[in-house]
Write a structure and sequence with these properties.
Elements lengths: L1 H27 L4 E7 L2 E9 L10 E6 L13 E9 L2 E2 L5 E7 L6 E2 L3 E5 L8 E6 L4 E9 L5 E7 L2
C-alpha cells in the first residue's frame, strides 16, 4: 500500500510537471505561420509571429516609415506580428506601397492592417518588411496583400493558439 501511494504521488507529480510545462510554453509562444506567393511581379512571404516590440532598448524592430506601430502593451493587446517580406528579382524591396488586410472565417469583414515599414534592429534595410502587431483570435484566416497596386497575393491559414 505504501508503494502504491508513492507511485500514485510520483505519477501525479510527473503529470503536473508535463501539463505545467505545456501550458507555460503554449502561453509564452504564439503560433507562427510562414507562406509565400506572388503579387504581380513581386515575391511576397507572409509571416505571422508572436507580437514584437518597436520601442526601447530591447526592441527587435526599427520603425522606418508608414503607420505607427501597435505596441504589445497598448490598448489593442496584440498577440501576433503579421508582416510581409517583399522581393523583386530576388532583391528586397525597401520602399514599396504595401496593403495588407485579413478576415476571419472566410465570410467576415476585411480588416486593414496599419502598415509599418520596418527592419530588424542591427541588420539594416536589407531586412525591410511591412506589417504590424495585430490581435488575431483563433480561427481560419484569409490574408490579402498588394504591392504597388499589383494583383493581390492571397494566403490562407489557421490559428489555434
Amino acid at each position: 500500500m505504501k508503494n502504491t501511494r508513492h507511485l500514485a504521488t510520483s505519477c501525479a507529480a510527473v503529470l503536473a510537471l508535463v501539463f505545467g510545462t505545456l501550458f507555460v510554453s503554449g502561453a509564452a509562444h504564439a503560433q507562427s505561420v510562414s507562406q509565400s506567393a506572388n503579387a504581380g511581379p513581386y515575391s511576397v512571404t507572409l509571416k505571422v509571429l508572436p507580437a514584437e516590440t518597436f520601442a526601447g532598448s530591447g526592441s527587435a524592430m526599427v520603425r522606418d516609415g508608414g503607420a505607427m506601430s501597435n505596441d504589445v502593451h497598448g490598448s489593442m493587446h496584440p498577440n501576433h506580428h503579421i508582416v510581409v517580406f517583399v522581393k523583386k528579382n530576388g532583391a528586397p524591396v525597401e520602399n514599396a506601397h504595401v496593403a495588407i488586410s485579413w478576415r476571419l472565417n472566410a465570410m467576415g469583414p476585411w480588416h486593414k492592417v496599419s502598415v509599418v515599414r520596418m527592419y530588424v534592429r542591427g541588420k539594416g534595410p536589407q531586412t525591410t518588411h511591412y506589417g504590424n502587431n495585430e490581435h488575431l483570435p483563433p480561427g481560419h484566416y484569409a490574408v490579402r496583400v498588394t504591392v504597388n497596386n499589383s494583383q493581390p497575393a492571397l494566403f490562407h491559414f489557421s490559428l489555434t493558439h
